[in-house]
Amino acid sequence: MKYISVKFETTNKCYTFSCEDETIVNGSGVVVETQRGVEYATVVGDQFEKPNVDMEIKPIMRKANEDDLKQFNINKEDAIKAKEICQEESDKLELGMNIISAEYTLDRTKITFIYLADDRVDFRELLKVLASIFHCRIDLRQVGTRDKAKMVSGVGVCGRELCCAKFLGDFDRISINMAKNQLLALNIQKLSGQCGNLMCCLKYEDEAYKDLRKELPKINSSVEYEGEKYRITSMNVIAKNCKLENSEHAIFISLDELLEKGKFIKTVKKEKEEEDKSDGE
What would the pLDDT profile of 115-164 be if each residue is shown by its tens digit? Predict the structure, then answer.
C-alpha cells in the first residue's frame, strides 16, 4: 500500500490518504471521505511510502469518474445560488450575517455555509428555514476576517496575490513586536493587510532580524561615544550602521564600532532584558 497527497479546491493545505490504485497519479481526481462528508479532491504529487505519522490515515474511496466530475461542477454552480438564498433568509431574520461561501459535499447530503459576523449569532431559526429549502444537513460556520481574505483572495501592497490565498495553510500569530524588530514605522494602516489585521509577511523575516539585533539597543537609547552622550535616532541592521545625535552633532558609525564601547555593552544587556520581558508579555 502506498500513500498520496490531495488538495481540495477550497483550501491550500494538502491531506494524506492511503491508496491501492496504481492508476491514480499526479493530477487525478479522487473521491475521499472526510469529517465533512464525501468530497472531490485532486491528487498533488506522486504516490509515496508510508509517512512518518502515528495518526490513522483514511483510504481513497475511488478514482473519480466523469459522473463524479460532472456532479462536482454542478454542485459548485448550485452552491452559488444556495449562498444567495442563505443571505436572503438571514437578512429576513436580521441576523447580521455576511455569507461568504457555500459548499456541497459531493453526494449532496450536506451543505456548509461560511459566514462573517461581528458577534455570535443565534441561527437556530435560520437552520430550520434552510433545512426546509435544501432538504439536507446544514452546517453554519463562523470565521474571522483573516479567513475571509483567504477565501476571497486579492492583491497585496506588494502587487502579488495574498499569501493566505496563494499558499499559506494555517495562520501564524502576528504581533506588533515583529514590526518593531524590523525597525518599521508603526503605522498600523501600512502594516495591515486586506483583512484589517497585521500582514502575515511580517513573520517571514522576523527570526533573521531577531538574530541580527541580539546585541543591539533600541532606537532612542542613550549611549556614550568618544566621551559624548548621544541618542540613537536610526539604525540599519542590514547595512550595519546607525545614526547618533545630540544637540550639537549628528554622526553615522558602524554597529561594530558602537558595540566595542564597554559602557554601551552594559546598556545593551539591560535593553535586551527589557525587550525579552516585553516579548514574554
Answer: 999 888 999 999 999 999 999 999 999 988 888 888 778 888 888 888 88
Is this structure's pTM higher than 0.90?
no
Mode of pairing for the β-strands spanning 137-142 and 110-116: parallel
Q: Does domain 70-143 have CATH number 1.10.3470?
A: no
Q: CA-to-CA distance for 84 and 191, rounded, in angstroms?
A: 34
Cell of 212: 541580527
Identical fold, 70-143 and 215-280: no
Strand partners, 92: none
pLDDT tens, residue by residue, 191-220: 998 888 899 999 998 898 888 888 787 788
Classify residue 200 by burial, with Cβ atoms within 10 Å: 0-12, 13-18, 19+.
buried
Domain boundaries in the chain? 2-64, 70-143, 149-211, 215-280
> With contact defined as beta carbons under 8 Å apart, do 198 and 164 qualify?
no
Domain 215-280 is of which CATH architecture?
Answer: Roll (2.30)
